[in-house]
Design brief:
The structure is a single chain. With about 240 residues, the protein is of the alpha+beta class. It has helices at about 40-45, 55, 90-95, 140-160, 165-170, 175-180, 205-215; strands spanning about 5-15, 25-30, 50, 65-75, 75-85, 100-110, 115-125, 190-200, 220, 225-230. The protein has 7 helices and 10 strands.
Length: about 240
């Protein structure tokens, strides 16, 4: 009706460089048009979108959810960046069973490009082959040793990488597999996952870095969001009919 005319649709853009995600645009978002001092792009910045990994990568891996935050608006496009990761509730519930020990750990770690992340991990003990006993419970000393290994592995994997490379490790959950291997000599584990990642602090916003993440050069854009010229690039003047 009358209020619909005041609204405007914007396309959500996803980071695609270095194999982060394969889908370029994921859905649209609605915002009130610019009127007076209320600017549409300001209302869009800071919005957080939650998307299943299956939608971002066109695969069947639907239990891992990624949060993307809108950091910049150019033309009709919202340029997003990584804001967090989570597992769906049904996946977590399906992992928790009787006759095994649940081990959880979390750590605050800073990436090389200045993002402070809180990373949560969980894993479960498993029965070894030819085991007669029904239960596979770990001793409290073994739980402590496994938790220390989890914290050490998560710290090593995140503190030596930038955010882009760290997200690339979260997609196939390679950190969980590393923890599983590391803990084999303490107690065999299975279903080891990075359960959650939160972004606690981020460095000062840099538009050129965000554009680099999206595989584009930062620059002036037209109405459709297409880049006309990159900063510092020579633009040939148009031919004039008369002087």
């Amino acid at each position: 009706g009358r209020h619909d005319r005041r609204k405007q649709w914007y396309q959500r853009r996803v980071p695609i460089t270095a194999g982060m995600f394969s889908v370029r645009d994921v859905g649209k978002t609605l915002v009130t048009r610019t009127t007076g001092m209320k600017i549409a792009s300001d209302a869009l910045k800071g919005r957080v979108y939650e998307c299943a990994l299956a939608d971002l990568n066109d695969d069947e891996n639907a239990f891992r959810k990624f949060k993307l935050i809108c950091e910049d608006v150019q033309g009709k496009y919202c340029y997003t960046n990584f804001h967090g990761m989570d597992l769906t509730r049904d996946k977590l519930c399906s992992l928790v069973r009787k006759w095994q020990t649940l081990i959880e750990a979390h750590v605050d770690v800073k990436t090389t490009d200045g993002y402070l992340l809180r990373v949560f991990c969980l894993g479960f003990t498993k029965r070894v082959s030819k085991q007669i006993k029904k239960a596979a419970y770990a001793k409290s000393s073994q739980v402590r040793a496994i938790r220390k290994k989890m914290v050490d592995t998560m710290t090593k994997e995140a503190s030596t990488e930038d955010l882009k490379s760290f997200v690339n490790k979260l997609i196939p959950d390679s950190i969980g597999k590393d923890i599983e291997k590391e803990c084999m000599d303490i107690y065999p584990l299975h279903d080891v996952h990075i359960r959650k990642v939160k972004v606690l602090k981020k460095p000062k916003f840099d538009a050129s870095k965000l554009m680099d993440l999206h595989g584009e050069m930062g620059g002036t854009t037209d109405e459709s969001g297409e880049i006309i010229s990159a900063p510092g690039e020579f633009v040939e003047p148009t031919i004039q009919d008369s002087v």
